[in-house]
Amino acid sequence: MEQNKDHWENVYNTKSSSEVSWTQEVPRTSLDIILSCNVPKTARIIDIGSGDSKLVDFLLEAGFTNITVLDISTKALERAKLRLGEKAALVKWLVQDVI
Ligand SMILES: C[S@@+](CC[C@H](N)C(=O)[O-])C[C@H]1O[C@@H](n2cnc3c(N)ncnc32)[C@H](O)[C@@H]1O
Predict the structure, then answer these.
(1) Which of 2, 50, 54, 85 is most buried by its number of CB atoms within 10 A?
(2) Domain tally for the chain?
(3) Cα of 72 to ligand 1 centre, how many Å?
């Protein structure tokens, strides 16, 4: 398990968002699925394996108030928090191995 964490910490410590294949400027599919559920803005939403994805930014912008972001990499979440600035305080951050 530690190997997996080491792998992902290494990725986020050595590559920028533009250097990995999965980065989306707008995570359209995930966002559209969540919005199509028509859940209240207070619904509990968790992004598991979030990395430093901007999904949380768009969820905040859409008015969701109960967002949790979980990733195995401390660095990934640090990067997302840094990007969000003061808005980061509106989110629950978990560095966890989901397995
Ligand atoms: C391919 S990246 C996708 C990141 C993000 N969802 C995005 O679309 O930009 C996979 C992510 O899953 C995380 N991850 C891998 N194994 C995990 C585990 N066992 N528990 C939690 N996160 C994990 C990695 O750290 C990485 O951020």
Answers:
(1) 50
(2) 1
(3) 7
User: Residue 12 and residue 52: Cα distance in Å, rounded?
Assistant: 9
Q: What is the CATH number of the domain that holds 88?
A: 3.40.50.150
Rounded to the nearest 10°, the torsion over CA 25, 72, 79, 32 is: 30
Q: Which has the closest alpha carbon to 62: 39, 89, 86?
A: 39
Q: Which pLDDT tens digits describe the chain residue by residue (99 residues)?
A: 689 999 999 999 999 999 999 999 999 999 999 999 999 999 999 999 999 999 999 999 999 999 999 999 999 999 999 999 999 999 999 999 999
Sheet of 45-48, strand order: 45-48, 67-71, 92-95
Tell me if the pTM is above 0.85: yes
* C-beta 1 within 6 A of ligand 1: no
